[in-house]
Amino acid sequence: MVQYKQKNRSGGIILANKLVLIDGNSIAYRAFFALPLLNNDKGVYTNAVYGFTTMLLRILEDEKPSHVLVAFDAGKTTFRHKTFEEYKGGRQKTPSELSEQFPLIRQLLDGFGIKRYELESYEADDIIGTLSKQAAEGDWVVNVYTGDKDLLQLVTENVKVTLTRKGISEVEAYDLKQVEERYGLTPHQIIDMKGLMGDPSDNIPGVPGVGEKTAIKLIKQFGSLEQTLDSIDQVSGAKLKEKLSENKEQALMSKELATITHEAPIEVSLEDSVYKGYEPEQLLPLFKDLGFNSLLERIGGDTGQEMVSEEEKETIEFEEAKALNDKILSSPAALIVETTPETYHRAPVNGLAIVNENGKFYIPGDLALSSPEFKKWAEDESKEKYVFDAKRAYVALDWNDISLQGVKFDLMIASYLLNPSDSGDDVAVIAKRYGIHDTDGEEAVYGKGAKRKVPEISVLSEHMVRKANSIYVLQEKLTNELKKNEQYELFADLELPLSLVLGEMETTGVKVDVGRLQAMGRELTEQLNALEAEIHELAGVAFNINSPKQLGEILFEKLNLPPIKKTKTGYSTSVDVLEKLEGKHEIIRKILVYRQLGKLSSTYIEGLLKVVDQQTDKIHTRFNQALTQTGRLSSTEPNLQNIPIRLEAGRKIRQAFVPSTPGWKILSADYSQIELRVLAHISQDDNLMEAFKKEMDVHTKTAMDVFHVEMEDVTSQMRRHAKAVNFGIVYGISDYGLSQSLNITRKEAGEFIEQYLKTFPGVKEYMESIVRQAKQDGYVSTLMNRRRYLPEITSRNFNLRSFAERTAMNTPIQGTAADIIKKAMVEMERVLKEEKLEALMLLQVHDELIFEVPEHEIEKLSQLVPQVMESALGLDVPLKVDLNHGDTWYDAK
DNA sequence: GTGACCACGC
DNA sequence: GACGTACGTGGTCACA
Question: Which catalysed reactions does the entry list for this protein (predicted)?
């Protein structure tokens, strides 16, 4: 364990005491403005605390001080206000986001065992001035850390001042020599300089018209402010002479204000600031609470995927169930169905855990899965269960012929809805965010990569009981937070039911025509071999076409083609680069085809064949319900949301996706322009709403309005551009992004966007108001109150801020579309059951639902599906669904 | 194992 | 004027 301890004095020689004085307010300010507005899981801002902490850790490591003291300003008025009432007047009020962090900084310093001090009527500077003088007189070595150049006046033989530069990441130490180099003045003359030039940030007037250059020149010439004022007649320049004599008094007062006192009536002694090193145990809970996970390691804490050490864990008492009775199978109960992390399809159940008001129980897998009592309890809707990742539990049990019902709380989903940015699939990680630290992460228990294995049962049983206990303990807290955010309906009526729907879709799986896939694979391999030979022939040498590095060398060095774009590591060989080279060499076309076919072969043929269930020829994807920042689902192992469609060669892959029962059909229903319809609704833009109400082609309509032409005069080029702009609006891309996708200049792209917003003033108004709202609230919401926090929207970093602004505009659109289709899915599943239909919902691809349907239900479904989807959520514009069916997914177009 | 690069979908 | 620009998943290569 790394622990900071005062180092032994070398060779027994006692060196001078070393005192570090920190200007607390100044460093906190710097940190606050340098870092984006981070917050922890409780919504408390922590950026200043974080910056302060990293700085402090570095100071302690670099300086290894024997004494440390952090000085703070106290109150608003100081003795300087008696001299000059407007001292520090006109200063912007400290933002509340910062002031609320000061108590945390104080707590943190206490945790470090570092003395802090503030004194009524005095500023931090004065405390530092007084202590540094005392220390220097005692022959101590002093280093002052601040962001304020004024403190340079304190530099002496023994006292250094270290200034923060550029944010907080860089610092610069000033001793006598460096002050001289920088200003050509002694530290004491800094005050004279200030008297002349003033300081706008403190509202110190100085002499108007005199800036740093003139001030330094005068002080160099005459030695001090007083001597300058005594010798005004020797000053060169009539204007300057006049200014100086007019503002004598003001200059003297300014000097007084800028002078840091060495005589503050402080009640601390140097010895009070003794620093003995910190105890990691004191800091761990603070850091965890603040969410400083990256700093835990630096102070010798755990990173989350190491076992929580035994001392930190309270022992947990639990019972191993020998038989299942009402005491164990009561309600409500937290339930863990333990499966080895990763895929849960056909996964063995490693055991179960239940925590309820009667106690904590570990239940061996065999016992539960073979127990009729357990099945009855699990399937009983009225027995309330609290879980983590309901779908995992649901599917794992479903493979064992148990249909889990009555899930009333899912910790994973709840945490995701409260804040999608710190979601996760690990109980421990989420529990920690909410203050529970005794649960190990999955990786710590199971190991990772090659080392993954199911641990011995004593470890595993305790692990699952701890997880169940975390859920049990956190249920109320998160439920309350959801209610407070008005997200409980989203949670209970949408996402929870959806997880069961998704679970059913996943277990149902999609049938694949393996023979067909293999045949396509063979054909592709032949084509690839032929192409490879031709490419090598044209290049004059055999090389790996899949290696961007080798390909780049061949194209741009051997064949001397012009390198259009570079990447960090070499030449770019991406599609848009190759397309620009297409006319220049016949090898290019072949490489493009090789790339396209190679992708199909490796990702889609081989990739899919790898995950086909050998017994049933079905593919069971997993939908991740708690991952994307917008509320969309994602799909893994395999990803069935990116099966090719645009290019015919790729689209053919879809021919391998077939119904699981002979004679059935694949039916696909996709929302037409759902995001733009949502945008029309949210923005209430008349023009856009009209397009949908009149059922116009929205891209054509956009082209007509943006280019001011009649419908029949819209060229395909215009429509393509309009479509790209609409696309950009929906996905929140920038002018740069648009310029890339249309291969036009950024300026032109910017003009397009501007023209678009002129045409749709309601949209413009929406874009502006949503950004304002995001700045005010810190988050944006969808129609169903899904949230996304955007702390960076107040960042002073242009990039971070712009990105957050585009996100603010885009997330309510994309997220509401996600809400709508999710709602339709829940409703659809209900209707299928209610109508006793055999048809099965198989997949969701963001704006599209895929079903397999018996022939005789096609007609019924063709009516029901659009009806359900179009009425999922009432908008002020109609929703429209396009429907297709066929023998394979390919044919459902 | 990890990061860079590339490519597929919405 | 620079900054480095939708969100995902997954394959391959090349490095350690």
Answer: DNA(n) + a 2'-deoxyribonucleoside 5'-triphosphate = DNA(n+1) + diphosphate
